């Protein structure tokens, strides 16, 4: 057993997954991006937490995520609309999403480290670049809590996009093995948030 670089991801509805995949295809050529989104092994997602876990802790982490999911309802989210040079859907960080992010980060703190190296990353996305290593290594310090900017990546690099406001639901939390460009390559565990009508 070893260690894996992982992403605790919020998976959006099928509709916005499909829109992300279609837009990814349109901009992939202009960006020369290696990110080819799909619903099998390069999942459109919103990162809640990131780090490196010991393979032996999978069951413990899964149990924690299940407990968190039972206490949090399905999220109603929306994209930030308007022109952007970022190759992503930026997501409005409402209080429920913010709380979910912070809860996952805090509850998994004993199990996530940031001593990442290339052996921990899924190889299906091609040669691992330095940007991937750097982002994982500094996620807690540079991309979490007050610096949390939820988004769905559409490609690597800059793009000229005009994003509409899209309302969607997100009900699944997935623990994913990370690949190049911090893509979600393989689901290791998943669980569902509570239905909206239960809370």
Alpha-beta classification: alpha+beta
The sequence of SSEs as H and E is EHEHEEHHHEEE
**Largest sheet descriptor:** 5 strands, antiparallel
- Rg over CA atoms, rounded to whole Å, is 16 Å
How far apart, in Å, are the first and last alpha carbons? 40 Å
> Low-confidence runs (pLDDT<50, min 5 residues)?
none
Verbal overview:
There is one protein chain. The chain is α+β, with helices and mostly antiparallel strands. Helices cover 28% and strands 33% of the residues. It contains five helices and seven strands, in the order βαβαββαααβββ. It has helices at residues 14-31, 58-70, 95-107, 130-137, 139-142; strands at 3-12, 46-54, 75-78, 82-90, 151-163, 167-178, 184-192. The strands form two sheets. Strands 1, 2, 3, 6 and 7 form a five-stranded antiparallel sheet that branches. It has a two-stranded antiparallel sheet with strand order 4-5. The chain starts with a strand and ends in a 7-residue tail after the last strand. The model has no long low-confidence stretch (mean pLDDT 93).
Short description, anyone?
28% of the residues lie in helices and 33% in strands. The protein has 5 helices and 7 strands. The radius of gyration is 16 Å and the shape is globular.
Key terms:
single chain, 199 residues, alpha+beta, 5-stranded antiparallel beta sheet, two-stranded antiparallel ribbon, 5 helices, 7 strands, globular
Secondary structure elements and pairings:
Layout: E1 3-12, H1 14-31, E2 46-54, H2 58-70, E3 75-78, E4 82-90, H3 95-107, H4 130-137, H5 139-142, E5 151-163, E6 167-178, E7 184-192
Antiparallel strand pairs: 1-2, 1-6, 3-6, 4-5, 6-7
